[in-house]
Amino acid sequence: MSAITQVTADPQSLDRGSAVPIYVQLEDILSRRIASGEWRPNQRIPSENELTRMYGLSRMTARAVLNSMTNSGLLFRVPGKGTFVAPAKLAAVSPAYRGIREQLEEMGHTTTTELLRAGQERPPTAVREALSLGEDDDVYVIYRRRSAGGEPISLHTSFVPTRLAPGLDSRDLVGEQLCVVLRNEYGLDMSKVIERLEVVTAGSAEARLLATRRGHPLLLLVDTIRDQSGTPFEFSRILFRGDKVAVTFEHSV
Fold first, then answer.
1. Is the pTM of this model over 0.85?
2. Residue 150 and which of 19, 138, 141, 212 are 20 to 30 A apart at CA?
3. Is 21 exposed, middle or buried (0-12, 13-18, 19+ CB in 10 A)?
4. Distance between CA 144 and CA 99 in Å, rounded?
5. How far is it, in rounded angstroms, from Cα 68 to Cα 61?
6. What is the pLDDT of residues 123-137, one digit of tens each?
């Protein structure tokens, strides 16, 4: 992270005669400094006290603006060090609709996929229930790590009933997206998906694989995918680095 630049008066001063509230004006000015590239990703910006002096406003107003920009993802704080410009996140729609790899490559990002594990196992109770399996039914577990621009961004764990996709673990699960293999090789095409998104923290294993620290916030997306007959054929858990990826959901009304 680079050191803070010299604090100088901002040419985009606040208009105290305007009907636009001061805090809105300040947030707009700071946002434009980021959008223009004047303040770069991971660069430390002026503190609350420095913004107070630069713009002649209360510390409470400066704090409220920094909190708002932090909550919206434009800034992030490091305790004891200050407030920094957040790197731009990779924006993707839910992988249930279009594969993450396909989306990133269309946006010009170089991606890599590593197959960490693929094999036949007895499913945990939660997976068995989600896939409507019997006590003796097995699943293929496909565990992969995806990177973009040389940085790991997600861990994908997919469970597929062995009876629906025999020999799945011997297919090309690195060169092809799993959804493409399931559709083209086994006729398993998504018709309905049930999704749940929540925030979790990285354990030791996830932190190591995602090149982050233990306790770092991650996005967990859980999908249960069904075909046109209503049969569930895939249950997946995807962990995204929350500081690298933003997931968008699309719905038709």
1. no
2. 141
3. exposed
4. 13
5. 11
6. 999 999 999 999 999
